[in-house]
Amino acid sequence: MAKKKAEEKQETEETPKAEEASVEEVLLEKPKEGLAVELGEVKELEEHIVEEVKKKGAFEKEAWKPKTSLGIKIKNGEISDINYILDRRIKILEPEIVDALLPNLATDLLMVGQAKGKFGGGQKRIFKQTQKKTQEGNKPKFATFAVVGNEDGYVGVGYGKSKETVPAREKAIRQAKLNVIKIRRGCGNWRCGCGDLHTVPFKVHGKAGSVEITLMPAPKGTGLIVEKECQKVLKMAGIKDVWSRTEGQSRSKLNLLYACFGALKELMQFKISQKDAEKLHIVEGSPLIKV
Ligand SMILES: [Zn+2]
Fold first, then answer.
1. Burial of 262: CB neighbours in 10 Å, binned 0-12, 13-18, 19+
2. For the segment 66-102, what is each residue's pLDDT rounded down to a tens digit?
3. Rounded-to-integer distance, Cα 1 and Cα 136, Å
């Protein structure tokens, strides 16, 4: 890299007349070439990373050394229910707490990045790659968006960035676990009335930046009528049918995903009496994990 840099400098020094052209070259063409090579490497890395995320073995409670008082209580067995933490809004500071209390926790990385392609034809990638221009050259940075959930009422999302791909992934997954929330599910569509937990029980909204999303109850068998990455978030949350509507720049993927998560958060922001909950078949979190 240093050699290339030196050569570039020499070129620009030798031809001071064609300065404009060389500047354009540097700005437009040179970084593209560099990026293409790096992205090729990233693609391989990415495949490896995705495999690794899926392979992840079971959580070993014995090997875990808790650092917070909450963690110690969980290891001792004083707290064995995630609802105890979520209902009291206790801040989770160790991702292992979520691992210990929510078995069958799955992790996925969402496509928030894009490979360089002409005319917007860039392929989707799990790493959003950005570059800072410095005296030493381009300094790339990687960011990724993770979603964790048990596909049964509990879900969390997280965003992580770093100079390397692997720490970015670790940060994102850690954040996602710390952000875990409980959602309400039910059968809120007037055309269905089956009583299963397959959709959102009522209409909810979420907003991030200019992006607004509305999730609406849908009858059984509809599927997830929503953007592809949002589908992954909803699937992790355990929602199978939903209708949706978006407003604003929904192409800005991160805002769309935050809005989607915001809408899921809103599911818990109403007080519902036990009577109404039974009447409308609304269940908080997972029916298997009892309060
Ligand atoms: Zn239904």
1. middle
2. 899 999 998 888 888 888 899 898 999 999 999 888 8
3. 9
The mean-pLDDT minimum among 10-24, 72-86, 260-274, 275-289 falls in 10-24
In a domain, 289, yes or no: no
Q: How many CB atoms lie within 10 A of CB 12?
A: 15
Mean pLDDT of 269-283: 85
pLDDT (average), residues 223-235: 94
CATH number reported for the structural domain that contains residue 233 in this entry: 3.30.230.10
CA–centroid distance, residue 84 to ligand 1 (Å): 29
Range of the domain at 255: 183-284
Contact 169, 158 (CB under 8 A): no
User: How much distance in Å is there from the Cα of 67 to the middle of ligand 1?
Assistant: 43
Residue 280 has what pLDDT?
Answer: 79
pLDDT digits (tens, 9 = 90+) for 201-224: 999 999 999 999 999 999 999 999
185 C-alpha to ligand 1 centroid (Å): 10
Task: Check which CATH number belongs to the domain holding 139 and give it.
Answer: 3.30.160.20
288 C-alpha to ligand 1 centroid (Å): 19
Tell me, what amino acid is at 156? G
DSSP state of 143: E
Query: How far is the C-alpha of 235 from the C-alpha of 97, rounded, in Å?
Result: 22
Q: What is the CA(188)–ligand 1 centre distance, in A?
A: 7
